[in-house]
Design goal:
Strand order of the largest sheet of chain A: 13-12-9-10-11-14-21-19
Number of domains of chain A: 4
CATH topology of the largest domain in chain A: D-amino Acid Aminotransferase, Chain A, domain 1
Shape of chain B: elongated
Number of domains of chain B: 2
Structural class of chain A: alpha+beta
Order of helices and strands of chain B: EEEEEEEEEHEEEEEEEE
Number of helices of chain A: 18
Number of helices of chain B: 1
Number of strands of chain A: 22
Oligomer: heterodimer
Helix content of chain B: under 10%
Radius of gyration of chain A: 25 Å
CATH architecture of the largest domain in chain A: 2-Layer Sandwich
Structural class of chain B: mainly beta
Radius of gyration of chain B: 21 Å
Largest sheet of chain B: 9 strands, antiparallel
Strand content of chain A: 15-25%
CATH superfamily of the largest domain in chain A: ATP-grasp fold, B domain
Largest interface: A-B, 50 and 60 residues
Helix content of chain A: 25-40%
Largest sheet of chain A: 8 strands, antiparallel
CATH topology of the largest domain in chain B: Glycoprotein, Type 4 Pilin
Shape of chain A: globular
CATH architecture of the largest domain in chain B: 2-Layer Sandwich
Distance between the termini of chain B: 41 Å
CATH class of the largest domain in chain A: Alpha Beta
Chain lengths: ~500, ~160
């Protein structure tokens, strides 16, 4: 096993990795930009290396500086975390060429699964279902008509060279197909200098369900079940859970999705921890979407339900050890749900809201796991993603888990910045959420049916006013003096 | 002690003594101690409340957050006479961040909905639009400046 590992990341995941390393008696090297000198990760790590100015392009994305830091500090391996360089095949290669170990999959697997079209081909070849479509560009209106008819409306036009929704059109009826192709092509030409568009079946109100896979470098690969991540805002997950509520309706679904995920990962030559993302339609058909070739943000829900430590296995596998768990050894017990706590304002379009954390009270008690990268008095920098912490809870079933999570959210207090804590309490109290009726369109529906928060009762409000008055007003001094335990010693 | 207060935008009145208060028509005995910096335990008729001062004027009580402004009557009078000048509108930073670009100059005539300034935080750009047609009276910031939430960026008349 390694004696020292460098963490090429920041925030809560850097803290998570430091903890994982320490539990295996491995020394940790944090890296930091100018903005992150005061970070919790730097405080907690055994060693820390400065990378450069705050912008990621000059710090956390600098392959040369990171490898140089690893060498200077005598680290034998690098864990990339998620985001930044974690899915960069060049980085994985550079680490290996420098004589260090990259804690993740082989560079070749990252490269293959990083291309949407190559990944889709691998999935098809491995026999995994993909969203039905043509892939080849539309050559004529006639051809498009017959393809759309065989797929069944509604269909989705997509730019072959595209991404980010550009050149994308939903088509509900054959009459609209011709003009939609014209619009999508011209938008694609404008955005990507390539007017090719292709057709895909539109999956209506899909669920986003992903499968965790784990494989070693000796040909052994298993899956650790699913995470349902359908609750998203701006295409970013905010609540994740295991098991998916779908599994209660269709107990064979986990095995089918798991088997498909393992086949895709094997076909890609994958090793270490990875995640295969699927869309699931209303008839519980699942379709391969893409592979994330790294540790996921939401890995704690899998760890809570399977009692397996993904970070620990990542380290052991990277060090060449065998994965000693067979598929039949994996057990899923109880239920876990995670909320991503962001510095953002849910009442203002989820706009980021960085700033100084003037007050922090963290939840605790039975079944609570808090993976945080912050502390009271720390300034949340505006240079990076505003994820502060992940609050994950475990309980025996979904209903108890929701109650426990609401309890924990109410214990948590963050002052000085805005967060989505209270927003989560509302979502978790939503009846459709309780019934497990989830889809990636869930939050749109939630906002449409959301009622204004009930008025607080007058006594609770009075308490807030009394404390504000006693803290602020000079006129309150005689009263403050009469309260013997006002000042905290 | 009698104070005028505004809680979450609504006005009210607090009469406070060392062990009894009256607030918007309810009168109760209470006991209060400080249990930590900015953390208070309050008992009212055997009901237990914990209040946390998140920031000056922002108090969390049993899971709810209140924005509380306290005025002593003298301050309030000063406030109401100052008043807001007719038709002036301040464009405020919605979040802490960096000014990417100021799109107008002082003296420019602007349409309602016209973009005035672009502010960026955490890779999210946010264009602030003019709430009404008018003239740019003053630009209080510049390209590249760091701004705090609620800071006045531009004044429109």
């Amino acid at each position: 096993m390694f004696r020292k590992v460098l963490i090429a990341n920041r925030g809560e995941i850097a803290v998570r990795l430091i903890r994982g390393l320490r539990e295996l008696n491995i020394a940790s090297v944090a890296v930091y930009s100018d903005a992150d000198r005061p970070s919790l990760a730097v405080r907690m790590a055994d060693e820390a290396a400065h990378l450069g100015p705050a912008p990621s392009s000059e710090s956390y994305l600098r392959i040369d500086k990171i490898i140089d830091a690893a060498k200077r500090h005598g680290a034998e391996a690098i864990h990339p975390g998620y985001g930044f360089l974690s899915e960069n095949a060049e980085f994985a290669e550079a680490v290996t060429h420098a004589g260090l170990v990259f804690i993740g999959p082989p560079a070749d697997a990252i490269r293959k699964m990083g291309s949407k079209t190559a990944a889709r081909q691998i999935a098809i070849a491995a026999g995994a279902p993909v969203v039905p479509g043509t892939e080849a560009a539309i050559r004529s209106l006639e051809q498009a008509r017959s393809t759309a008819e065989s797929l069944g409306y509604p269909v989705l036009l997509k730019a072959a060279a595209g991404g980010g929704g550009k050149g994308m059109r939903r088509v509900d009826r054959e009459e609209d197909l011709e003009s939609a192709i014209r619009d999508a092509s011209s938008e694609a030409l404008h955005a990507f200098k390539n007017d090719e568009v292709y057709l895909e079946k539109l999956v209506l109100e899909p669920r986003h369900i992903e499968i965790q896979v784990l494989g070693d470098h000796h040909g052994h690969m298993i899956h650790l079940g699913e995470r349902e991540c359908s609750i998203q805002r701006r295409h970013q997950k905010v609540i994740e859970e295991c098991p998916s509520p779908l599994m209660a309706l269709d107990p064979g679904l986990r095995d089918r999705m798991g088997a498909a995920a393992v086949k895709v990962a094997r076909a890609a030559g994958y090793a270490n921890a990875g995640t295969i993302e699927f869309l699931v339609d209303r008839d519980r058909n699942f379709y391969f979407l893409e592979m994330n070739t790294r540790l996921q943000v939401e890995h704690p829900v899998t760890e809570l339900v399977t009692s397996l430590d993904l970070v620990s296995w990542q380290l052991k596998i990277a060090a060449g050890e065998r994965l000693t768990i067979d598929q039949n050894d994996v057990r899923w017990t109880g239920n876990a749900i995670e909320c991503r706590i962001y510095a953002e304002d849910p009442e203002n379009n989820f706009l980021p809201f960085p700033g100084k954390i003037t007050k922090l009270v963290e939840p605790s008690g039975p079944g609570i796991r808090l993976d945080s990268g912050v502390y009271e008095g720390w300034d949340v920098p505006f240079d990076y993603d505003p994820l502060l912490a992940k609050l994950a809870v475990w309980a025996k079933d979904r209903k108890s888990t929701i109650s426990r999570l609401i309890r924990a959210l109410k214990e948590a207090k963050v002052g000085g910045i805005r967060t989505n804590l209270a927003f989560f309490t509302e979502v978790l109290n939503d009846e459709a959420f309780e019934r497990g009726e989830l889809s990636t369109a869930f939050l749109d529906g939630f906002f449409a049916r959301r009622k204004p928060a009930p008025e607080p009762d007058q006594e609770t409000e009075a308490v807030a006013v009394i404390v504000a008055a006693l803290s602020k007003t000079k006129a309150a001094a005689p009263i403050v003096n009469s309260i013997s335990k006002w000042k905290w010693q | 002690m009698k104070l005028d207060v505004v809680v979450n935008g609504r006005a009210g009145g607090l009469q406070l003594e060392s062990s009894r208060f009256e607030y918007n028509g309810i009168a109760r005995d209470y006991s209060l101690i400080a249990s930590g910096p900015g953390i208070f335990s309050i008992l009212i008729d055997g009901r237990s409340y914990e209040a946390t001062v998140l920031a000056p004027g922002t108090i969390q009580v049993n899971g709810r957050i209140f924005s509380v402004e306290i005025f002593d009557p003298r301050e309030l009078r000063a406030r109401s006479t100052a008043g807001a000048s007719q038709g002036r509108q301040n464009i405020l930073a919605p979040m802490p961040g960096k000014v990417v670009r100021v799109l107008v100059a002082a003296g420019d005539a602007v349409e309602a909905g016209q973009g005035l300034i672009v502010v960026e935080a955490m890779k999210m750009q946010n264009e602030m639009k003019s709430p009404k047609a008018g003239t740019v009276v003053e630009i209080k910031t510049k390209d590249g400046a760091t701004v705090a939430a609620g800071e006045i960026l531009i004044v429109i008349e």
